[in-house]
Specification:
This protein is mainly α. The chain is built from 21 helices and 6 strands. It folds into 2 domains: 421 residues, no CATH class; 62 residues, no CATH class.
């Protein structure tokens, strides 16, 4: 796939793929089960898809018995008296660090009698509706197949859970390769950018990559691949298999996570450009075939939902379970985005969205894993360099480059607009701490993680422009500064994640027994 690079550059990209995979593997192994961004519910769906069960109605989908047995690997225990055993649910994620720093050990280290007694408790404790059950199927089908493979290899319990997480390492390697291909498609003659983009993607500190969730590397991998295929069609009229590939990738992106529907906007823009510049009947047939593939694949899932559950996506069931309701048109106007403090509300929404887009949202002992100073670097550099990218792209001499960058920027804006629209239309009720009526914003950066490849490409394209305006025009300048950014991101994440490696719940301790 990387034949456009010389042998030395191909080795560099291959090394970056290995770096990205290794980083995701190590951090996935370091975090105990289950991390605090809905991982048990996503894992439960993987287990169900692995068994050939595709959920229909949310209220019928309680966590499976196989999922609840994993309670042994995420629950702590203590014995304050000989006749009393206390259980501690996810003590490292949810509970403050004890004054003496002593975290209860995991139940799987307890005597056999205690372990056996915990199982009934776990089934009762996790006898809950899985409110992620109506999510689209692509990630769960892939991870379910991987889970079955782990079972065939003889893995059970906690080892099989971690095997499921380790799929992310393979996906991360593919994501880095797609980043290189995408950067090359945007700027074919810019070899520095084609190396800088996969470098930063390999080091990108988004912590949703370390768990079993549909925010995992599959979403940005498919989104980046779909946009790459569309750019290939935009640049020239490739053979018809490219149109088939683009259609499958666009549909798979939407059917991995609905919040990545912005890829449909990118498809629409690409169709508009190609349709108005190539007045070729054969081209119209190929484009029509692409659209038909998207409609058939997404339509099949939608038809299934309507026929079995009575709604298009199943999202209404999830909203009801979470206590959300759709606002009336009159009530929408009461959102903070439209009030006197609109600028502050939009700024609050945007800064939180950017910060969590970079570093994620996992909490440790009830506190965000973040360094405020580094968050400010992420936010300010993103705003400045994306602005530089738009200015530089507008003046690009090559039309294809302007179009590729313009569609990438428009896709980012559409993705943010979709999250903002979701923030506006729902009344979040009283069941939730966040989003809530007091702070009605979806500022989960993981909802936008699919746009990682075009984001990083624009970010570094803007950086290259800023360096050029500062009269630092060499390719080496971009690579040196990108390496510095990657080291800052890696170092900051290592600082906040360092305590996790000492967890007695994680894979390193599990595999040592």
């Amino acid at each position: 796939m990387l034949t456009w690079l010389g042998p030395r550059e191909r080795r560099i990209v291959a090394g970056l793929c290995l770096l990205g995979a290794l980083r995701v593997f190590v951090y996935s192994a370091a975090f105990p089960p289950f991390h605090s961004t809905d991982e048990p519910f996503h894992f439960d769906l993987i287990v169900k898809y692995a068994a050939g069960h595709v959920p229909v109605r949310l209220l019928d989908e309680r966590l499976s018995a196989e999922t609840t047995t994993i309670v042994l690997y995420g629950t702590g225990w203590s014995r304050p008296r000989p006749d009393l055993v206390l259980l501690h649910h996810s003590p490292e994620y949810l509970n403050p660090l004890p004054p003496d720093g002593a975290v209860p050990p995991p139940v799987w280290t307890a005597p056999a009698a205690v372990r056996e007694a915990v199982l009934p408790w776990g089934r009762e404790r996790w006898n809950r509706v899985n409110y992620e059950a109506t999510e689209p199927p692509v990630y769960y089908a892939l991870a379910g197949a991987w889970y079955r493979l782990g079972g065939a290899l003889g893995l059970t319990g906690g080892q099989r859970f971690y095997w499921t997480r380790f799929l992310n390492a393979l996906l991360a390697a593919g994501l880095v390769a797609i980043a290189a291909l995408f950067a090359r498609a945007v700027c074919p003659d810019n070899r520095a950018l084609a190396l800088a983009v996969p470098l930063l993607v390999a080091a990108f500190p988004q912590d949703s990559f370390y768990g079993t969730t549909n925010d995992a590397p599959l979403a940005p991998l498919l989104f980046g691949a779909a946009l790459w295929a569309l750019l290939k069609i935009l640049r020239a009229a490739p053979p018809w298999p490219w149109y088939v590939l683009a259609g499958v990738l666009v549909a798979a992106t939407v059917l991995t996570k609905y919040s990545h529907v912005a890829i449909v906007g990118a498809l629409g823009l690409a169709l508009a450009v190609v349709g108005t510049t190539r007045r070729d009947r054969a081209e119209y047939v190929r484009l029509g075939g692409l659209v038909l593939i998207v409609l058939v694949l997404i339509g099949a899932w939608v038809t299934r939902n309507v026929g079995l559950a009575g709604e298009v996506t199943g999202s209404h069931q999830k909203a009801v379970a979470l206590g959300w309701s759709v606002k009336s048109l009159a009530a929408i106007g009461d959102h903070p985005f439209f009030g006197r403090g609109a600028i502050g509300a939009i700024g609050d929404f945007g800064t939180d969205l950017l910060a969590t887009f970079w570093r994620g949202e996992i909490a440790w002992h009830g506190r965000p894993m973040t360094l405020p100073g580094i968050d400010r670097v992420y936010i300010l550099s993103s705003v400045l360099l994306l602005t530089c990218a738009v200015i530089r792209a507008a003046g690009a001499r090559v039309r294809a480059e302007r179009l590729a960058l313009g569609i990438s920027a428009a896709t980012l804006l559409l993705a943010v607009a979709a999250v903002a629209a979701l923030s506006i239309v729902f009344d979040f009720g009283t069941q939730n701490q966040y989003p809530s009526r007091a702070r009605p914003y979806f500022t989960h950066g993981r909802l936008l993680v699919g746009t990682l490849v075009p984001f990083v490409t624009l970010y570094l394209y803007g950086l290259q422009g800023a360096l050029s305006w500062a009269r630092l025009r060499s390719s080496g300048a971009l690579l040196i500064v990108t390496i510095a950014i990657a080291l800052v991101a890696l170092g900051a994440q290592l600082v906040v994640i360092a305590p996790v490696f000492a967890s007695s719940y994680n894979w390193f301790h599990l595999v040592g027994r």
